[in-house]
Amino acid sequence: MDIVASLLDILVSAAFWTAVLRIATPYVLGTLGELICERAGVLNLGIEGIMTLGAMAGWMTVYQGGGLWAGVLAAAACGALLGLLHAALTVPLGLSQHVTGIGVTLLGTSLSYFVYRLVLPQASTPPTIVPFQPLPLPGALAQTPLTYVALAMVAAIAYVLYRTPVGLAVRMVGENPAAAEAQGLNVTALRIGAVMAGSALMALAGAFLTLSAFNAFFFNMVNGRGWICIALVVFASWRPGKALVGALLFAVFDALQLRLQQMTGGVLPYQVFLMMPYLLSILALVLVARRASYPRALMIPYRKGER
Amino acid sequence: MRLEPRADSPLALQVFAPVGAVVAALALCAALVAWTGAPVLRAYGLLIEGALGSRFALTETLTRATPLILTGLAVAVAFRAKLWNIGAEGQLYMGALAAVVVGGGMLDLPAWLLIPLVLLAGMAAGGVTLLGPAVLKVRFGVDEVVTTLLLNFVVLLLVSMLLEGPLKDPMGMGWPQSAPVIAAAELPKLVARTRLHAGLAIALGLAVLLWLMDTRTIWGYENRAVGANPRAAAFAGMPVTWIMLRTALLSGGLAGLAGAAEVCGLKGYLTLDLSPGFGYSGIVVAMLAQLHPLGVVGAALFIAAVFVGADAMSRAMPVPNYIADVMVATSLLCMLVAGLLTRYRLRRG
User: Fold this and answer.
1) If you ran DSSP here, which 8-state letter would residue B177 be given?
2) pLDDT 10s digits, A104-115
3) Residues of B in contact with A85 (CB under 8 A)
4) Taking CA A157 as the corner, what is the angle to CA A156 and CA A163, rounded to the nearest 5 degrees?
5) Fewer CB within 10 Å: N-end or C-end of chain B?
6) pLDDT tens digits, B185-203
7) Cβ atoms within 10 A of the Cβ of B155, count?
């Protein structure tokens, strides 16, 4: 009974839901970013490296005296650039999206660490910046601006994908590029654009970590969040609204495990709780795998006149 | 400009592709070195000297190459059959875990018996780790890229948990590390007073063995057939599911062996920093080798030289040693383009 009562206490506390929204933010942004890429037919495994570069670039801009929003813009620009690299290799050249994505992740991560160490050769304790402060709103609504950006993005991307000609075109090149081409659409340009936009969002997810959630850049700070986003996209059946639900659900479990960890007080090793997000992602993939309806042209390069 | 498929791709081109890719990558990274303000030629000179310039440097490079050959082979056999194993890092740690458990004094056997047992335990642990995602793939259609990636994090947490719990070395001064393996489980040194151990000989032997398997046996033929076109292979009566599963066991086993060999040959005990990303570098090694088992040896030597040389370089000038990781990542991306050019040619119009 005690457990049930304290669980209820947790679930009605504002602090819990504040944490849920905060934890969900990078997942929302990253999942939306990956979703846009995959809707256009390009799997982007560069996400982990793009998030790392976004985290580093955003933090570094502020550390060097730039404003917080300048940091956000710098992160998005860096993300779009890595996205352009991924798209240039996978779309016009049609290289393996798996291996190119891993290469982009290795490059984004190593470049971030290289630049960080170059600027701060001997920093043993990471230097801090003044991060975004929560807006003066009641209860769980007291979030930093980037969380609201993420929520607005869900609506904006759902609108663009389903209610505008651009969105229709993006979905079409991900389903049937030959038909899109026959309609006079430029498949290559649409795919490159979608991957760049999606990658900019992934970088924002990274920037949230250093500019809102924490106030410093750590090595390995992205810690597999990008890979979890890839699982969330499948779980959300490539729909922005469901991506939000998936990210929130995930954040609820994550916030709960943190509190359960305190409640159980060392009965189980803390690593068991830390494993949960990764195991949950695998479970989610298994549950939806059979009925997942992948965008039909996902991972299939398109070359004009070649079958 | 457009790409036109080549009718055939000459051997010279296939050999030149990785060389060209590596040169291009090193040239691109020269810009990064120049940006730090360090003299580029001197920096690269230090890198080569640090990797190959002395007896000590050479043995260090070969020591570094040992796990890279094994993870490179692991990735190559998996990718050959289009099993996207990105989890070599986790499989390596599972192999190392099995090695410290079996070799930690539980079995008091002579070395000629214990060493093979420990290495086999490492292979089994790594193989089983990849078998999970492979079963999920063939049974439920779950994409193995994401599951193997996620398992890397689960395995690291598991190792961390065991190192702070049951496997913690009571003599370890509170550090999260395992007790060392007993002397009978230690691999012999290849060169006295260096760190180079018999793991290298095992890795080289396996590379040759896998090459023979690939070219001379039905197994190798079936693996390549499934990789080229699983439906056609199934239509020809090949047991595609079984081929996938045994490829997973082999690939995970090779990565697990890398971990066991690192423990028994080099470190002696297990810590959370046993591998500086050998599993991920293995992907680059395999791609540079164009998934050829013998090519893996050359590619692993190159990647090892970059890591060992960059460490030496960064001690002498203000270039962070992460330059090695950038070089490796850039080499992978350049290799993908070079590989494309062996299969296609650029045509105007």
Assistant:
1) -
2) 999 999 999 999
3) 333
4) 85
5) C
6) 999 999 888 899 999 999 9
7) 22
pLDDT for the residue numbered A1: 54
Q: Which of B309, B310, B283, B305 is nearest to B296 (CA)?
A: B283
Nearest CA in chain B to A100: B333
**pLDDT band per the 50, 70, 90 thresholds, residue B120:** very high
The candidate with the shortest Cα–Cα distance to A271, out of B91, B178, B93, B158, is B158
Q: Which residue of B has its CA nearest to A107?
A: B329
- Which residue among B36, B152, B326 sits closest to A110, beta carbon to beta carbon? B326
Please report the pLDDT score of residue A290 as a whole number.
79
Chain B interface test: which of A106, A257, A273 (most B C-beta within 10 Å): A106
Q: What CATH number does the domain containing B273 carry?
A: 1.10.3470
* Chain A touched by B332 (CB under 8 Å): yes
Which tokens go with B277? 């990303």
Identify whether B187 is part of a domain.
yes
**What is the DSSP secondary structure assignment for residue A139, as one 8-state letter?**
G
On the question of pLDDT at A27 being above 60, the answer is yes
Q: B75: domain range?
A: 39-317
The answer to whether the beta carbons of residues A282 and B147 sit under 8 Å apart is yes
**Joined tokens for residue B313:** 């370089």
* Spatial distance between the Cα atoms of B109 and B115, rounded to a whole number of angstroms: 9
What is the rounded distance in angstroms from the CA atom of residue A11 to the CA atom of residue A3? Answer: 12
In a domain, B27, yes or no: no
Within-domain flag for B172: yes
**Each residue's pLDDT tens digit, A132-174:** 999 999 888 889 999 999 999 999 999 999 999 999 999 999 9
Tell whether B23 is covered by a domain: no
For domain A16-121+146-289, give the CATH number. Answer: 1.10.3470.10
Mean pLDDT, all residues of chain A: 92
Number of domains in chain B: 1
Q: What is the model's pLDDT at position B25?
A: 96
Nearest-CB residue to B146 (from A96, A107, A285): A285
Q: Name the residue in chain B with its Cα closest to that of A122.
A: B320
**pLDDT of the residue at A100:** 97
Q: In terms of C-beta distances under 8 Å and separation of at least 24 residues, what long-range contacts does A64-70 make, across chains too?
A: A68/A131, A68/A132, A68/A211
